[in-house]
Design goal:
The complex is a heterodimer. Chain A is an alpha/beta fold. Chain A has 9 helices and 10 strands. Classes of the chains: A alpha/beta, B mainly alpha. At the A-B interface, helix 2, strand 6, helix 3 and helix 5 of A face helix 9 and helix 10 of B.
């Protein structure tokens, strides 16, 4: 694939749960090293969009192209795509029966057939970056939420993904834990990682986003740079949303 | 609050005078029943007759196991192979029941429902007379038995059963494991389904194949959760192995029936046999209990 391709392209993507339309005609382009923040009221389909990118949800209409390759039903295709896309979940979803180190090395060892020693070094490298290298031997249950989420970020990075997806990474955290996780994400953005974040952290969005996407009722309502989105939202729905979530800040 | 030390620990539960009184009543009740039985039945207990069927002295005066002990060994062999086979059947069909493939799901469901809704006795008769009679010749078991070398006979007799009864023993193991496998299948299915959806998603998100997701993430967590019911089922398997005595497999219950008939010491025989089963099953329960504790330490 050549470098002029967008990293990710969604063309007319639609998704239904029974009769309920979760996504309708979603069109998005994400360039290399672009940082996109998706926001919107709950149930607006923002999580569904990024879950479609690594096919935790299946889209039923339109096309999704990752680095020029279309997502299909073929299992090989799906597993390959997932290896190139890192995902961080709201509830961390670490593997509780494995040590932190084993949580990180599982992917590289199984998927990339990496030798154990090499995987270990890689894991320690990323644990260092999220600033918890000294806890490699612990189990997830012994850590705070903020630490667990940073481990989850390191676990995703261990697969050397082309794109990172964050699904409300700070919503389940105690307030004092949030900044530690956001710091790691800001650093990652600074290193040129291509990423999409679904988040309500508007401070973070202002600081790192190249593009803001506002969704409501399964549709993209507004796309633009943060300066425009925050200062002059064009739609009433975005204006209402912003006034609601910013009123206490 | 001026003190940061914890309040005194609660006292450990112990028996109170009232409990001892109740124990006394229970024991007195039992003694009365034993006394009544003794008086009313006028039964002459002859334990040594039965004990001789457990161990006996041979011509040189050395103690050697007699039929009841060899029967117990048969039960253990039957249970051992039955447990392994049932675990495999249960795991495979349990996985099938959580599969996204409709065919696998339906077949596994059919198997489980069929077994669970037929009495074990009926199942064993049907299986033995209609299926085992047809399948064993196809597998060539009897041909193997006839042409076996002395070495392989020795191995078979050590691991399974007397060579002449090998095909019978095999039928018993298959019966037992098919029967218990259905229950294990349900336990496995429940275990897999009890694991949070987020674990599947996280494992898939790092690109693991379905096989690896199950092996590395889901099953290790499920095993920990299902160990208690699984242990119960394996102990049940030991007890249920008594049923295959009906198809002339010479395990403990079968032998006991014969001993009771020849000696006419019915009570003694069955009490001894009951004790033997209890000893085996209770040891297993203790073993599983320790295993369970071991698996829980260090993790969340």
């Amino acid at each position: 694939m050549n470098d002029t391709n967008p990293m990710l392209e969604m063309r007319g993507v639609g998704k239904w749960y029974g009769d309920f339309c979760a996504l309708y005609d979603v069109n998005l382009k994400l360039q290399r090293a672009e940082r996109m923040v998706i926001c919107g009221p709950s149930g607006s389909g923002k999580s569904t969009v990024i879950r479609c990118v690594n096919r935790l949800e299946e889209h039923q209409a339109g096309q999704i192209l990752l680095d020029g390759v279309e997502l299909t039903e073929d299992t090989r295709n799906i597993e390959r795509v997932r290896r190139e896309v890192g995902m961080v979940f709201q509830h961390f979803n670490l593997f509780p029966h494995l040590s932190i180190l084993d949580n990180l090395t599982l992917g590289p060892i199984r998927n990339l057939k990496m030798p154990k020693k090499e995987a270990r070094e890689l894991a320690l490298h990323y644990l260092e970056r999220v600033r918890i290298a000294e806890q490699a031997g612990k189990y997830p249950g012994e850590m705070s939420g903020g630490q667990q989420q940073r481990v989850a970020i390191a676990r995703a990075l261990c697969m050397k993904p082309k794109v990172m997806l964050f699904d409300e990474p700070t919503s389940a955290l105690d307030p004092e834990m949030i900044s530690g996780v956001l710091d790691v994400m800001v650093e990652l953005a600074g290193d040129g990682m291509t990423m999409i974040c679904v988040t309500h952290e508007m401070g973070f969005a202002r600081e790192v986003a190249d593009t803001m996407v506002f969704m409501d009722r399964g549709e993209i309502v507004e796309v633009g740079p943060p300066s425009e989105f925050f200062n002059n939202p064009t739609s009433d729905r975005a204006r209402l949303f912003l006034s609601q979530i910013l009123s206490h800040h | 609050m001026t003190d940061r030390r914890p309040p005194p620990a609660r006292k450990k539960a112990r028996f109170k005078p009232f409990d001892f009184l109740m124990f006394g009543i229970l024991i007195a009740g039992m003694i009365y029943i034993v006394y009544r039985v003794d008086q009313v039945l006028v039964y002459h207990w002859e334990w040594h007759t039965v004990f001789e069927y457990v161990v006996r002295r041979d011509e040189t005066g050395a103690l050697v196991p007699n039929v009841l002990l060899t029967g117990l060994m048969s039960t253990l062999r039957l249970a051992f192979w039955g447990t392994i086979a049932a675990a495999i059947i249960g795991l495979v069909t349990g996985l099938c029941r959580t599969s996204s493939n409709l065919f696998l799901r339906s077949v596994a469901r059919l198997y489980v429902e069929l077994i669970r809704n037929i009495p074990p006795l009926v199942f064993i008769f049907v299986f033995y007379f209609f299926i085992s009679g047809q399948i064993m010749p196809v597998l060539g078991i009897d041909a193997f038995v006839r042409s076996a070398s002395p070495e392989s006979v020795a191995v078979v007799e050590l691991l399974f059963s007397p060579i002449g009864l090998f095909s019978n023993f095999l039928a018993g193991v298959i019966c037992l494991s098919l029967f218990e496998g259905a229950y294990i299948s349900e336990i496995v299915r429940a275990g897999i389904q009890s694991i949070d959806k987020g674990q599947w998603e996280a494992a898939r998100a790092i690109g693991l194949s379905r096989f690896n997701v199950l092996r590395d993430v889901i099953l290790p967590q499920a095993i920990r959760k299902i160990l208690p019911p699984l242990a119960g089922q394996f102990i049940t398997l030991v007890k249920d192995s008594a049923i295959v005595s009906l198809i002339s497999i010479q395990e403990l219950t079968y032998v006991a029936t014969e001993v009771a008939a020849t000696t006419t010491r019915v009570f003694e025989t069955w009490i001894v046999v009951g004790f033997l089963y209890f000893a085996v099953c209770y040891s297993l329960a203790l073993l599983f209990g320790r295993l369970e504790k071991k698996m829980q330490t260090g993790r969340r």
